[in-house]
Design brief:
Strand content: 15-25%
CATH topology of the largest domain: FAD/NAD(P)-binding domain
CATH architecture of the largest domain: 3-Layer(bba) Sandwich
CATH class of the largest domain: Alpha Beta
CATH superfamily of the largest domain: FAD/NAD(P)-binding domain
Largest sheet: 5 strands, parallel
Number of helices: 19
Radius of gyration: 23 Å
Structural class: alpha/beta
Length: 480
């Protein structure tokens, strides 16, 4: 390592963000890129450990100690080459990945871990600044054609890898612009869309074809896809939201989180949406049901739209603020996470079950809730129990359901193909990512279930290897 004692000399410098009073007035990115000298200093904290568990934790197998060392030595181009070898979207993961690697950093056993995500962010932005990242079309084409359905992180990563192998790749996207959840599900304050467009522009120059506003299975039939392409990869994500079917659910003013976030992103992109159809939190008392990342994104969006107040409620109890014995190092811990959106305002409440919605004149006005506790049964499994006499009400004239997703959309392509599903309703595949239909593969949340962006990228890369091997007998691509 460039400085084998760096971790003894320096403490972790946490990521910097724009001031709250400034950032809530717009949707621009909240994160601030570090000065390069500070980034190099922080990279020296990587401690040359004998067994780097960050590799074990990272789904794409990032060469973390190696590019940290190169970064510290000022060899930015070589550092990027290693980063690029394992990750097709480092400018995305450097901004929004939950950094599983950092929770498995050996230094994190008795100190703050290395700032791996911020270091990745610094490397890729330096690479763009210095023009290291250029279109590199394959030198030769295989003559094979592949259709990738869906342009989220799994589909994009799969398409990029297959294009590198020399195949002709066409990405079909039902929305008007490519990017999937990266474009429409993640707010601009976490990921400005110019970052996504920058990468897609490079891929287009490398030969990937993007066909937008095409709903595969409806606008183009499943039979035509199978006939026209040598392989088809299903990477449409997991977009069916989990509903809350309780009394009063039919009242107006209750929305799914993704409908809310998609519309907000489209408005920020300049879409013309009639006022009567807009979902706005301005001046409203908003309750967000669901304590995960999607709910947090809704908190930040509500704050920027000028909500009167925002309350986020979660069924599960509040996590601990540090590791517990149930989640020892190097496992990813269940701990309390405070996002930049939470720092901007709003209230969080835990162990709350919503029993019914109450409205006036057809519009929601309040929630009826109870407190709950989780106890273990005789088998040691957690069982939820309502706390007696704990019923209370929360005023709300807007409710956002952010309780996750239950699987991919079945109507259209999946039904037309007739692919086999697993017991959770996701697309079932073999170990080689092939579905029950020959030459049809699947990757990402559609196959795995709702998960993290870094897992989607990993899924796309692994599926690309299997597709290449299926078409050519062997693969020139990495397995992950």
């Amino acid at each position: 390592m460039g400085d084998p004692r760096g971790f003894l000399k320096l403490k972790r410098k946490f990521g910097q963000y724009r001031p709250v009073c400034e950032r809530v007035a717009d949707f621009r990115e909240v994160a601030i890129l570090r000065p390069e000298e500070l980034a190099k200093e922080q990279s020296s904290r990587c401690m040359d450990c004998g067994t780097p568990f960050c590799h074990w934790a990272c789904p794409v197998g990032n060469y973390i100690p190696e590019w940290n060392d190169l970064m510290f030595l000022g060899q930015w181009e070589k550092a990027f080459a290693l980063l690029d070898a394992a990750n097709n979207l480092p400018e995305i993961t450097g901004r929004i990945c939950p950094a599983l690697c950092e929770y498995s950093c050996v230094l994190g056993i008795n100190d703050d871990p290395v700032t791996i995500r911020e270091n990745e962010f610094s490397i890729v932005e330096h690479a763009f600044k210095k023009n290291y990242i250029k279109p590199k079309p394959p030198l030769r084409r295989s003559g094979k054609k592949i259709a990738v359905i869906g342009s989220g992180p799994a589909g994009l990563s799969c398409a990029a890898q297959l294009n590198k192998a020399g195949h002709r790749v066409t990405v079909f996207e039902k929305d008007d612009l490519p990017g999937g959840i990266l474009r429409y599900g993640i707010p601009d304050f976490k990921l400005e869309k110019k970052i996504l467009d920058r990468r897609i522009s490079i891929w287009k120059k490398e030969g990937i074809i993007f066909k937008t506003s095409v709903n595969a299975g409806i606008d183009i039939s499943a039979q035509k896809l199978i006939k026209d392409f040598d392989a088809v990869v299903l990477s449409g994500g997991s977009r069916t939201p989990r509903d809350l079917k309780i009394e009063g659910r039919n009242l107006s003013g209750i929305y799914f989180a993704m409908d809310y976030l998609i519309q907000s992103n489209k408005l920020n992109l300049g879409a013309k949406i009639p006022l009567s159809q807009r979902i706005s939190a301005k001046g409203k008392h908003v309750v967000i049901i669901g304590g995960g990342d999607t709910g947090a994104d809704c908190v930040g969006t509500c704050n920027r739209q000028g909500a009167a107040c925002v309350i986020q409620v979660e069924l599960l109890p509040q996590p601990a603020r540090c590791r517990t014995i149930e989640h020892p190092w190097p496992k990813y811990p269940l701990i309390l996470k405070t996002s930049t959106s939470h720092e901007e305002g709003g209230e969080r409440r835990w162990s709350i079950l919503t029993k019914k919605f109450i409205g006036e004149n057809g519009a929601v006005k309040k929630l009826v809730c109870v407190n709950v506790v989780f106890e273990k049964d005789a088998a040691g499994c957690p069982v939820m129990r309502e706390v007696p006499c704990s019923e209370f009400e929360i005023a709300a004239d807007m409710v956002i359901l952010a309780m996750g997703f239950i699987g991919p959309e079945k109507q259209g392509l999946l039904e037309s193909l007739g692919v086999e599903l697993d017991n959770r309703g996701n697309v079932k595949t073999s170990a080689s990512y092939m579905t029950s239909i020959p030459k049809v593969f699947s990757a990402g949340d559609m196959r795995r279930g709702q998960s993290l962006i870094v897992w989607a990228i990993s899924e796309g890369r692994r599926a690309a290897y299997s597709v290449d091997e299926y078409l050519m007998g062997s693969s020139v691509l990495p397995k992950m």
